[in-house]
Amino acid sequence: MSLLLVAKKRDFSSLENALLEKDPNLDVEIWPRVDKKERVTFAVCWDHPEKVLGNYPNLRAVSSLGAGVNHLLDDKSLDDDVPICRLITGSLQEQMAEYVLNAILNYRHNFYDYVELKKKGSWEQKGIIPKDNTSVGIMGLGEMGKHVATLLEQQGYKVSGWSRSKKELKGMDSFAGKEELDPFLNATNILINLLPLTPETDGILDLELFKKLKKPGYLINVGRGDHLVEEDLIYAFDMGYLQGACLDVFEEEPLPKNHSFWNRKQIMITPHVAAITPAKEAAELLVENYKRAMSGMELLYEVDRERGY
Ligand SMILES: NC(=O)c1ccc[n+]([C@@H]2O[C@H](COP(=O)([O-])OP(=O)(O)OC[C@H]3O[C@@H](n4cnc5c(N)ncnc54)[C@H](OP(=O)(O)O)[C@@H]3O)[C@@H](O)[C@H]2O)c1
Fold first, then answer.
1. Res 35 pLDDT > 90
2. Quick check: is 39 catalytic?
3. For residue range 44-59, what is the model confidence (pLDDT) as tens digits?
4. pLDDT at 155
5. Residue ranges per domain, the chain?
6. What is the mean pLDDT of the chain?
């Protein structure tokens, strides 16, 4: 039995070391050099090549190397009865909450303007957007969203959240389902996207949605690139629905060099780094799920294939 690490481009050396430190008896293989395909019983994937999973007839489970799983759900070469799980760790949640708080502070304190002004050697004082004039709305209150909501509430922000089912979180107004999306948007001016990418949420961040936000609107997209209709973001700036955006995820990654977003002052760009799973914590969960899969137990953070997340 072996555990296979698969990605098109990734240096797996620190994860391999962490896995072997956690369990020295583990047989770890790294794609594409796989000795015996039949021995592979557990695969860990991130941006893996299409159809590659079909080569391993004895897979008992597959794990994403991150919180998102759409790359695995979309893979037709993976049998429907192979369970899929994902990596959720305390550090991942903490980093995500810090990233979002940092994006809000940079926006409220006009730091992006100061970066531009510094290039010109220009001493120009800008105001601060008052905290009590901002209403933060979080789309998606799962493993990441709940954590973000808690930190923002502790920081004194007015927070609301939108999910499929109602939630009870201290200090947060909960909105649920399609029928409550409009009231949620009408009460929000800083919008944070932490939805999973599913057929229902693909392209959800569009002009119609931006139009319903309270002004001035600001977008933080840390979910997936395909949630955002990229050209609608530009229209939303032009029409005054949004003042700016902080984007960590994109339709195409890496963001192409000639993409118009690079030249937009209103857009802060980070290269899909909002939350990165540390190797040691990843190894702990992967070894646990590997053992569970080998003994037929329920996996931790297993994905509901029907729901798509
Ligand atoms: N940029 C990065 O570095 C990074 C890092 C980690 C994660 N992510 C991304 O962050 C996102 C969230 O991850 P997660 O682990 O928090 O997800 P999760 O635990 O699966 O939570 C998903 C949340 O979205 C809600 N939801 C799903 N479909 C919905 C719909 N159609 N309408 C309304 N609400 C819906 C769910 O509602 P219920 O609770 O009612 O089911 C749940 O609250 C994912 O897109 C993931 O890929 C990005």
1. no
2. no
3. 999 899 899 999 999 9
4. 98
5. 2-89+277-295, 90-269
6. 97
Domains 2-89+277-295 and 90-269 alike in fold:
yes
* CATH number of this structure's domain 90-269: 3.40.50.720
The protein residue with its alpha carbon nearest to ligand 1, atom 44, reads 196
Question: What share of the chain has pLDDT > 90, as a percent?
Answer: 97
Give me 147's structure tokens.
Answer: 């954590």
Q: How far is the CA of 144 from the centre of ligand 1 (A)?
A: 7
Q: What is the mean pLDDT of residues 131-142?
A: 97
Residue of 10, 108, 109, 272 marked catalytic: 272
Length of the chain: 309
Multiple choice CATH, 2-89+277-295, 3.40.50.2300, 2.60.40.10, 3.40.50.720, 3.40.1280.10: 3.40.50.720
Residue nearest to atom 19 of ligand 1 (CA): 142
User: 263-303 pLDDT, tens per residue?
Assistant: 999 999 999 999 999 999 999 999 999 999 999 999 999 99
Whether 71 contacts 54, CB under 8 Å? no
Mean pLDDT over residues 147-176, rounded?
Answer: 97
pLDDT higher than 90, residue 161: yes
Active site residue 71: no
The closest-lying atom of ligand 1 relative to the alpha carbon of residue 70 is: 47
Phi-psi map region of 171: left, alpha, beta (phi>0 left; psi -120 to 50 alpha)? left
Q: Is 138 in the pocket of ligand 1 (CB under 6 A)?
A: no
Closest by CA position to 82, among listed 253, 307, 299:
299
Question: What pTM does this model have?
Answer: 0.96
